[in-house]
Amino acid sequence: MALKRVDAAVLYAVAVEGREITAALSAKRFLGRGIAVGRAFGLRVAAVETGMGKTNAAAAAAAVIHLYRPRLVINMGIAGAYASSGLKRGDVAAAVMEVYADEGIAGTNDFVGLKEIGIPIYKSGRKDYFNEFPLDEKLTARALKILGQDSAAPARPPLAGTFATVSAVSGTPARARQIELRTGAVCENMEGASVVHVCTMYSTPALEIRGISNYAGLRDKNGWDIDAAVNNSGRAVIILLKNMSLIL
Q: Helix or strand or coil: residue 80?
Protein backbone atom coordinates (compact mmCIF):
# COMPACT_ATOMS: atom_id res chain seq x y z
CA MET A 1 0.00 0.00 0.00
CA ALA A 2 1.34 3.43 -0.94
CA LEU A 3 2.08 5.86 1.86
CA LYS A 4 1.52 9.60 1.70
CA ARG A 5 3.11 10.91 -1.48
CA VAL A 6 6.35 12.91 -1.38
CA ASP A 7 7.39 15.63 -3.77
CA ALA A 8 10.98 14.44 -3.99
CA ALA A 9 13.01 11.41 -2.94
CA VAL A 10 16.74 11.94 -2.48
CA LEU A 11 18.77 8.73 -2.59
CA TYR A 12 22.38 8.21 -1.45
CA ALA A 13 24.42 5.12 -0.64
CA VAL A 14 25.77 5.91 2.84
CA ALA A 15 24.71 8.32 5.58
CA VAL A 16 27.55 10.82 5.17
CA GLU A 17 26.55 11.48 1.56
CA GLY A 18 23.09 12.62 2.65
CA ARG A 19 24.01 14.60 5.74
CA GLU A 20 23.25 18.00 4.16
CA ILE A 21 19.82 16.83 3.03
CA THR A 22 18.76 15.22 6.30
CA ALA A 23 19.94 18.31 8.18
CA ALA A 24 17.75 20.48 5.94
CA LEU A 25 14.58 18.52 6.75
CA SER A 26 12.23 19.82 9.43
CA ALA A 27 9.51 17.83 11.21
CA LYS A 28 11.31 14.71 10.03
CA ARG A 29 10.44 11.19 11.02
CA PHE A 30 12.92 8.34 10.81
CA LEU A 31 11.05 5.34 9.49
CA GLY A 32 13.75 2.70 9.65
CA ARG A 33 15.60 1.11 6.72
CA GLY A 34 17.49 4.39 6.26
CA ILE A 35 14.41 6.50 5.38
CA ALA A 36 13.69 9.95 6.84
CA VAL A 37 10.63 11.90 5.69
CA GLY A 38 10.22 15.59 6.44
CA ARG A 39 9.58 19.06 5.09
CA ALA A 40 11.98 21.33 3.22
CA PHE A 41 11.33 24.45 1.11
CA GLY A 42 7.60 23.79 1.01
CA LEU A 43 8.13 20.21 -0.18
CA ARG A 44 7.59 16.85 1.40
CA VAL A 45 10.91 15.05 0.98
CA ALA A 46 12.09 11.49 1.60
CA ALA A 47 15.81 11.14 2.28
CA VAL A 48 16.84 7.54 1.65
CA GLU A 49 20.10 5.79 2.58
CA THR A 50 20.09 2.92 0.10
CA GLY A 51 23.24 1.04 1.06
CA MET A 52 26.23 0.55 -1.20
CA GLY A 53 26.08 -1.05 -4.62
CA LYS A 54 23.67 -1.67 -7.46
CA THR A 55 21.38 -4.19 -5.79
CA ASN A 56 20.78 -2.10 -2.67
CA ALA A 57 20.24 1.04 -4.73
CA ALA A 58 17.80 -0.62 -7.14
CA ALA A 59 15.80 -2.21 -4.33
CA ALA A 60 15.58 1.09 -2.44
CA ALA A 61 14.60 3.06 -5.54
CA ALA A 62 11.83 0.60 -6.42
CA ALA A 63 10.51 0.56 -2.84
CA VAL A 64 10.50 4.35 -2.54
CA ILE A 65 8.76 4.81 -5.89
CA HIS A 66 6.14 2.21 -4.95
CA LEU A 67 5.54 3.53 -1.42
CA TYR A 68 5.86 7.29 -1.88
CA ARG A 69 5.27 7.95 -5.61
CA PRO A 70 7.76 10.88 -5.75
CA ARG A 71 7.41 13.51 -8.44
CA LEU A 72 11.22 13.56 -8.72
CA VAL A 73 14.05 11.24 -7.69
CA ILE A 74 17.48 12.78 -7.10
CA ASN A 75 20.33 10.30 -6.79
CA MET A 76 23.36 11.87 -5.13
CA GLY A 77 26.67 11.03 -3.51
CA ILE A 78 30.37 11.07 -4.21
CA ALA A 79 32.31 9.78 -7.20
CA GLY A 80 35.81 9.28 -8.53
CA ALA A 81 36.69 11.46 -11.53
CA TYR A 82 38.43 10.10 -14.60
CA ALA A 83 41.72 11.69 -15.52
CA SER A 84 40.65 13.45 -18.73
CA SER A 85 37.32 14.76 -17.43
CA GLY A 86 38.63 18.11 -16.22
CA LEU A 87 36.95 17.52 -12.86
CA LYS A 88 38.77 18.38 -9.65
CA ARG A 89 38.17 17.25 -6.08
CA GLY A 90 35.20 19.10 -4.66
CA ASP A 91 33.62 19.71 -8.08
CA VAL A 92 30.03 18.74 -8.80
CA ALA A 93 28.92 16.72 -11.82
CA ALA A 94 25.46 16.00 -13.23
CA ALA A 95 24.67 12.86 -15.22
CA VAL A 96 23.25 13.04 -18.73
CA MET A 97 23.74 9.29 -19.19
CA GLU A 98 24.38 6.39 -16.84
CA VAL A 99 26.30 3.37 -18.11
CA TYR A 100 26.53 -0.09 -16.60
CA ALA A 101 30.28 -0.32 -17.11
CA ASP A 102 30.82 -4.00 -16.34
CA GLU A 103 27.67 -5.79 -17.56
CA GLY A 104 28.88 -7.90 -20.45
CA ILE A 105 31.88 -10.10 -21.22
CA ALA A 106 35.28 -9.05 -19.90
CA GLY A 107 38.25 -10.54 -21.74
CA THR A 108 41.93 -10.08 -21.05
CA ASN A 109 42.24 -6.99 -23.22
CA ASP A 110 38.71 -6.25 -24.38
CA PHE A 111 35.11 -5.93 -23.25
CA VAL A 112 31.90 -6.90 -25.04
CA GLY A 113 28.79 -4.99 -24.00
CA LEU A 114 25.20 -6.19 -23.86
CA LYS A 115 24.28 -4.69 -27.24
CA GLU A 116 27.00 -6.69 -28.98
CA ILE A 117 25.84 -9.82 -27.16
CA GLY A 118 22.27 -9.06 -28.17
CA ILE A 119 20.67 -9.27 -24.72
CA PRO A 120 18.91 -6.12 -23.45
CA ILE A 121 18.89 -5.56 -19.70
CA TYR A 122 15.45 -3.91 -19.98
CA LYS A 123 12.77 -3.58 -22.67
CA SER A 124 10.06 -0.93 -22.87
CA GLY A 125 7.73 -1.44 -25.81
CA ARG A 126 9.95 -1.51 -28.87
CA LYS A 127 12.89 0.16 -27.11
CA ASP A 128 15.75 -2.00 -25.87
CA TYR A 129 18.09 -0.80 -23.13
CA PHE A 130 21.52 -2.34 -22.98
CA ASN A 131 24.34 -0.79 -20.94
CA GLU A 132 23.20 2.83 -21.33
CA PHE A 133 20.36 4.65 -19.58
CA PRO A 134 19.95 8.30 -20.60
CA LEU A 135 18.49 10.86 -18.22
CA ASP A 136 15.92 13.38 -19.40
CA GLU A 137 17.80 16.07 -21.34
CA LYS A 138 15.40 18.94 -20.61
CA LEU A 139 15.20 18.10 -16.90
CA THR A 140 18.99 17.98 -16.56
CA ALA A 141 19.43 21.16 -18.60
CA ARG A 142 17.02 23.06 -16.35
CA ALA A 143 18.82 21.77 -13.26
CA LEU A 144 22.21 22.82 -14.64
CA LYS A 145 20.87 26.28 -15.49
CA ILE A 146 19.62 26.75 -11.93
CA LEU A 147 22.93 25.61 -10.44
CA GLY A 148 24.84 27.90 -12.81
CA GLN A 149 22.84 30.95 -11.73
CA ASP A 150 22.50 30.46 -7.95
CA SER A 151 25.01 32.39 -5.86
CA ALA A 152 24.96 29.70 -3.17
CA ALA A 153 26.06 26.99 -5.61
CA PRO A 154 29.63 25.63 -5.57
CA ALA A 155 32.11 28.05 -7.15
CA ARG A 156 32.81 25.95 -10.25
CA PRO A 157 29.72 25.26 -12.41
CA PRO A 158 28.68 21.59 -12.49
CA LEU A 159 30.00 19.50 -15.35
CA ALA A 160 27.40 17.52 -17.31
CA GLY A 161 28.53 14.16 -18.61
CA THR A 162 28.20 10.40 -18.73
CA PHE A 163 28.64 8.51 -15.46
CA ALA A 164 29.95 4.94 -15.28
CA THR A 165 28.49 2.58 -12.68
CA VAL A 166 30.81 -0.23 -11.64
CA SER A 167 30.62 -3.20 -9.29
CA ALA A 168 34.32 -2.91 -8.45
CA VAL A 169 35.82 0.58 -8.38
CA SER A 170 39.01 1.13 -10.36
CA GLY A 171 42.02 0.08 -8.35
CA THR A 172 44.66 1.36 -10.77
CA PRO A 173 44.97 4.31 -13.15
CA ALA A 174 45.17 1.84 -16.03
CA ARG A 175 41.86 0.25 -15.11
CA ALA A 176 40.23 3.67 -14.73
CA ARG A 177 41.56 4.70 -18.13
CA GLN A 178 40.11 1.57 -19.77
CA ILE A 179 36.62 2.35 -18.46
CA GLU A 180 36.93 6.05 -19.30
CA LEU A 181 37.87 5.31 -22.92
CA ARG A 182 35.24 2.61 -23.35
CA THR A 183 32.30 4.51 -21.84
CA GLY A 184 33.22 8.16 -22.41
CA ALA A 185 32.35 8.76 -18.75
CA VAL A 186 33.63 11.63 -16.61
CA CYS A 187 33.41 9.75 -13.31
CA GLU A 188 32.56 6.39 -11.74
CA ASN A 189 30.22 5.33 -8.94
CA MET A 190 28.61 2.12 -7.68
CA GLU A 191 24.85 2.82 -7.75
CA GLY A 192 23.73 5.36 -10.33
CA ALA A 193 22.83 3.22 -13.35
CA SER A 194 20.59 0.98 -11.25
CA VAL A 195 18.66 3.97 -9.87
CA VAL A 196 18.18 5.49 -13.33
CA HIS A 197 17.22 2.02 -14.61
CA VAL A 198 14.45 1.69 -11.99
CA CYS A 199 13.25 5.26 -12.57
CA THR A 200 13.05 4.46 -16.29
CA MET A 201 10.99 1.35 -15.55
CA TYR A 202 8.51 3.36 -13.47
CA SER A 203 8.53 6.49 -15.68
CA THR A 204 9.73 8.58 -12.73
CA PRO A 205 11.72 11.77 -13.48
CA ALA A 206 15.28 11.53 -12.20
CA LEU A 207 18.43 13.59 -11.73
CA GLU A 208 21.87 12.47 -10.59
CA ILE A 209 24.27 14.83 -8.85
CA ARG A 210 27.66 13.80 -7.49
CA GLY A 211 30.55 15.49 -5.76
CA ILE A 212 34.07 14.50 -6.76
CA SER A 213 36.04 13.10 -3.84
CA ASN A 214 39.02 11.59 -5.64
CA TYR A 215 40.52 10.56 -8.95
CA ALA A 216 39.45 7.09 -10.10
CA GLY A 217 42.21 4.52 -9.83
CA LEU A 218 44.19 6.34 -7.13
CA ARG A 219 43.57 4.56 -3.84
CA ASP A 220 45.68 6.74 -1.53
CA LYS A 221 42.96 8.26 0.66
CA ASN A 222 45.34 10.97 1.86
CA GLY A 223 44.67 12.57 -1.51
CA TRP A 224 40.88 12.37 -1.23
CA ASP A 225 38.52 15.16 -0.15
CA ILE A 226 35.27 13.51 0.88
CA ASP A 227 34.12 16.51 2.93
CA ALA A 228 34.28 18.89 -0.03
CA ALA A 229 32.51 16.37 -2.26
CA VAL A 230 29.73 15.81 0.28
CA ASN A 231 29.32 19.50 1.12
CA ASN A 232 29.17 20.67 -2.48
CA SER A 233 26.90 17.92 -3.77
CA GLY A 234 24.61 18.53 -0.79
CA ARG A 235 24.49 22.27 -1.49
CA ALA A 236 23.68 21.57 -5.13
CA VAL A 237 20.81 19.23 -4.27
CA ILE A 238 19.38 21.69 -1.73
CA ILE A 239 19.37 24.39 -4.43
CA LEU A 240 17.55 22.02 -6.78
CA LEU A 241 14.94 21.24 -4.14
CA LYS A 242 14.40 24.94 -3.51
CA ASN A 243 13.79 25.41 -7.24
CA MET A 244 11.99 22.16 -7.99
CA SER A 245 9.00 23.98 -9.47
CA LEU A 246 11.34 25.34 -12.18
CA ILE A 247 12.74 21.90 -12.98
CA LEU A 248 9.61 19.80 -13.46
A: strand
Specify burial of residue 35 (Cβ count, 10 A radius: 0-12, 13-18, 19+). buried
Look at residue 7 and tell me if it is in a domain. Answer: no
The residues that bridge with 10 in the sheet, in sequence order, are 47, 74
Query: Among residues 240, 188, 228, which one has the least CA distance to residue 88?
Result: 228
The answer to whether residues 225 and 128 touch, using CB atoms and an 8 Å cutoff, is no
Number of domains in the chain: 1
CB 167 within 8 A of CB 53: yes
Determine the structural domain holding residue 149 and report its residue range.
Answer: 76-247
pLDDT score, position 1: 54
Tell me the pTM.
0.95
Closest among 192, 195, 166 to 104, alpha carbons compared: 166
Tens digit of pLDDT for each residue in 81-124?
999 999 999 999 999 999 999 999 998 778 999 999 999 999 99
- What is the amino acid identity at position 116? E
Let me know if residue 55 belongs to a domain.
no
